Amino acid sequence: MIISGQHVQLRSIEKNDIEQVRQWRNSPEIIRYMEHREKISPEMQSSWFEKVMQSGDHYLIITYKTEKVGMIHLRFLDAGRAESGLFIGPESYRNSPIGYWASLPLLDLGFTFLELNEIIAKVHVDNELARSYNQSLGFKLTSNLNEHFQEFSINYGRFQKVVEENKAFQALKGTYALSVENDKHLYQSNGLFISRTQ
Questions:
Q1: Which of 28, 2, 190, 4 minimizes the C-alpha distance to 113?
Q2: What is the CATH number of domain 2-187?
Q3: What are the start-end ranges of the H helices in the chain?
Q4: pTM of the model
Q5: Of 16, 66, 164, 181, which residue is 20 to 30 A from 143 by alpha carbon distance?
Q6: Domain ranges of the chain
C-alpha cells in the first residue's frame, strides 16, 4: 500500500525498514512513552515484523522528501475498531506538521476505506504533546486504563467535524492518492483526503 500526498508518502513497512524502526523505537525520547519499555533486539524486531505481515494490520513508513522519518499504524481490535499509533524518529521533525500530514490520511483510510466505527489511541499520562495532538485531531478521552495510560477515541462524525472546522486540514482534502494491490477491504472510491488510483 502506498498513500502519496503533497508533503509525505506513507507506504507499507518492508523488511529493510525494520532496523531503522527499531533504532527509533529504542531511543530514550520515544521508549519512555511506550506501553512496553523493553529494549527491542534485532531478533525481537524480526519476529514482530513476521507477525505484522501475517496480521492484516497496516504499519506504514512515513517518508518526507525521500527521507524515512517515522511510522504510523492501524492495528485491528474487535469488529469495527482499530488502534492507531505514530512516532517520528528524527528529533528535528517532531514538532513539524508531518504528524498531521500522516495522521489525516490514516484516519481517512480507517473510516472511509476500511469502514471502521471507532479508532482509539493509547497515550501515556506524561505525554502532554501526544494528548494535545490527538485532541486536535478530534480524539476524546474515553477511559483511564491504568496509572500510566489513557485511552482516547474518535469516530467518523467527529473526524468530519474537526476537518470542517480546521482550514489547514481542509486545504489537504483530496490531495492524497491511494495505490493498493489485491486488498478487498479497500472498496470505497474516494475519502475526505484520499482518492483511489487503482
A1: 190
A2: 3.40.630.30
A3: 18-26, 28-31, 42-55, 98-108, 128-136, 156-165, 167-170
A4: 0.92
A5: 164
A6: 2-187
